[in-house]
Design brief:
About 55% of the residues lie in helices and about 20% in strands. By secondary structure, the protein is of the alpha+beta class. Strands 1, 2, 3, 4, 5, 6, 7, 8, 9 and 10 form a 10-stranded antiparallel beta sheet that branches.
Length: about 500
């Protein structure tokens, strides 16, 4: 994927984090040293500090002291979680004496965040220890630092391995940063990283097992432009997807597959929601690729749902066989160059959007944009949903898609409506909408399951799964009732 020169990011430090498999470490290291001028190997130990209740982390900050030979470097970073694999965040760094943080600066960001009293209670909470290999690559006005870290992140009780590449654009054209990432991907598989070392450490402290991750709240500022808000939302979806993709690849967990698919649905919904602002050639190409990946996951997910509805042991055995084939297709897709490049291309596009102002995004706040889009989506759903009992299956499916778009838009824009009255209305609105969408999902599962069984030639759908016309009719009645509840709820904006 190329980036137009007019849209290139220049003179901006941007760090791209990539995860690599330990088996590819030597090949990628050798390639990196051929591409750039070696800087050398260093062993780095970083000790992270916080209060017992993790006040700094809850305030969006991490504090570490890095041991680099005889140097002690204190670093405070703002949490970059929402930026997924591209970390472009504020940080404050200084050399200090000793192994504990220097907190003598009364005006420091730490004091402003949690206060002097809390700072007096900080202590080490976890550490990372890595061997770092670095090189500098340059071409004309562009300079990129390449760093490979491999080692561990550890608490007193447990540790996890770490193997990642960081590409930092010191200055120049962001397109060359991503071109370099693709060059490395030709040598060994690289995947967009979404966790900083600090985030890995705090997950260890929480004793979070490798399982499915749900979408995290999206935090927007009402003063943002729509394009800026879109980037925050899209990165949140990318992070949601990558966290679950990693679990799915490692374990084949059905819950992780479901959440990865939800993340892609949310991302595609954001693409549609913000199309008037961000649409360009890349937007169109990325939509096609996201639709492909979502479809691969969807085939496996449909079988998971159908298996849950199949009481007959012989049918269940046959469906399990089909599920195995579908999950093999998922594994092959996730391991493909196409899927890896999709994430890199998406990251590049979002990085470019973040640092430019679309012509149709001038002098408009995201709050005004949100109200306009929510109004349109609600009006369309109310109009089409009012005729739900008389619609065809295809038209009912379209109503389900409209409900889903409105729900995702509501989730994306929740933080823009913080008032007590707004929050109460929002909660009632969201609850009623989720109930309506849930019934529509049950209807879709029944229709999809029946079609899937017929397609596979695996039996009589109604007899084998209970997806009878009578059950379908009952669900339609429930959908009409839940729609009536939803349509009576006041808007929250």
């Amino acid at each position: 994927m190329s980036t137009n020169a007019a849209e290139s990011v220049t003179e901006r430090e941007v760090e791209l984090k990539l995860e690599i498999a330990p088996a590819d470490l030597d090949r990628i290291t050798a390639a990196m040293l051929r591409i750039g001028t070696p800087v050398g190997d260093t062993t780095l130990t970083s000790v992270y500090f916080d209060t017992p209740e993790q006040a700094l982390w809850r305030g969006g900050l991490s504090l570490r002291v890095r041991h680099d030979g005889d140097r002690r470097i204190q670093t405070v970073k703002a949490d970059g979680g929402a930026s997924a694999g591209v970390f472009d965040r504020p940080e404050w760094e200084s050399d200090i004496d000793g192994d504990t943080p220097d907190l003598t600066d009364g005006d420091s960001v730490l004091v402003e965040s949690i206060g002097k009293k809390a700072l007096r209670r900080i202590a080490p909470v976890f550490r990372s220890q890595v061997t770092r290999t670095a090189a500098l690559a340059g071409s004309g006005d562009t300079v990129i630092e390449l760093v490979i870290d491999h080692g561990t992140v550890a608490t007193d009780d447990v540790s996890i391995p770490l193997c990642e590449v960081e590409l930092e654009l010191k200055h120049g054209d962001v397109a060359q940063l991503f071109a370099l990432a693709r060059q490395l991907d030709n040598i060994g598989a690289v995947r967009l990283g979404v966790l900083s070392k600090a985030q890995r450490g705090y997950l260890l402290l929480a004793k979070s097992s490798a399982g499915p991750s749900k979408a995290e709240p999206v935090l927007l500022d009402s003063g943002m432009s729509p394009a800026e808000a879109f980037v925050v939302i899209a990165w949140s979806c990318v992070r949601h997807y990558r966290l679950n993709e990693a679990v799915l690849t490692a374990t084949g967990d059905a819950g992780a597959l479901h959440q990865a698919r939800v993340a892609l649905r949310r991302l595609r919904s954001a693409f549609t929601l913000f199309r008037p602002i961000v649409a360009d050639d890349q937007h169109a190409r990325l939509r096609i690729e996201l639709r492909w990946l979502a479809a691969v996951l969807g085939d496996a997910r449909n079988l998971d749902v159908l298996i849950g509805r199949a009481p007959d042991p012989s049918l269940l055995e046959r469906l399990q066989h089909e599920r195995g084939a579908a999950y093999t297709a998922v594994s092959e897709a996730l391991a493909s160059v196409r899927a890896r490049r999709l994430m890199l291309n998406l990251a590049e596009w979002l990085t470019v959007i973040r640092h430019r102002q679309p012509a149709n995004d001038q002098d408009r706040s995201v709050l005004a944009f949100a109200v306009d889009r929510l109004k349109r989506l609600r009006k369309r759903l109310k109009t089409d949903g009012a005729q739900f009992a008389d619609l065809s299956d295809d038209d009912r499916h379209e109503v389900r898609i409209e409900a889903k778009k409105l729900r995702y838009a509501t989730e994306f824009f929740t933080s823009l409506f913080p008032g007590k009255k707004e929050s109460r209305r929002l909660e009632r609105f969201r609850s009623a909408l989720e109930s309506f969408q849930g019934i529509l999902g049950d209807l879709n599962d029944q229709t999809t399951g029946n079609l899937l069984l017929l397609h596979l030639g695996l039996g009589n759908p109604a007899a084998d799964t209970g997806n009878t016309p009578a059950n379908y009719a009952k669900l339609v009645e429930e959908a009409v009732a839940t729609y009536a509840d939803f349509s009576s709820i006041k808007k929250f904006w």
